[in-house]
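By convention, each integer encodes one residue's backbone shape. The lines below illustrate.
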Amino acid sequence: MGSVAYVQGASRGLGLALARALVDRSDIDVVYAAARAPEDSSGLTELRQRAGARLRPVTADVQSESSIAWAAEKVASEQRALDYLFYVAGVLHEGTMKPEKRFEQVHQSNLEHAFAVNATGPILTARYLVELLAHDRRAVLANISAHAGSIGDNRLGGWYSYRASKAAQNMLTRTLAIELRRRAPNAICVGLDPGTMDTELSRGYRRNVSAGDMASPDEAAARLLALLDSLTREHSGAFLRYDGQELPW
């Protein structure tokens, strides 16, 4: 029997690239592609045409606990277990929301939005799906974080909402990993920094990134999956860069 994967944030960018890469793996039978409006994603529509029933779009709004719970119920009604759970959804800028350069630019609404998507979303997604990772096979829960969420390596300041919400995500991932050692001992729970990618999230904020240091979503997905394939249970609870380097909290 092949594996089952769930990707939250699969409508575009890295999430869509992960869904594509997982569909192309011979050891994966089913990929659930979760997004707020999967029917509006041309990338998912194209992938569904190629993958058929192996790709199953799911509506899940990470800012709505009831929507997350509904998506989890749908998966649980169809599957006895999950082998991969990816949380890829994230927000750095949106509409009038921009990364703050000074503390005078911090606004309550932007903080709340960043925390809802980057921190609350991952732990609620895990809360409703994690029981499907508790089985006798190897399982992986990977939350896509960012180097900017490292408190110990914060040398530039700024980006208050994004940094703080990613740091909170890291703490939640670490705390969940500790509990899973008891409740799902075969699960590997990690936070991952995919590096800078050519996606909408980073557009306009990668001026100092050289072309050689920027990956396409497909390249980033391939190297993250290669990293995850190399991990053991001893890595659970770690915050890792795409090349396997452990990052400071």
Summary: Strands lie at 3-8, 28-35, 55-59, 84-87, 139-144, 187-193, 239-241.
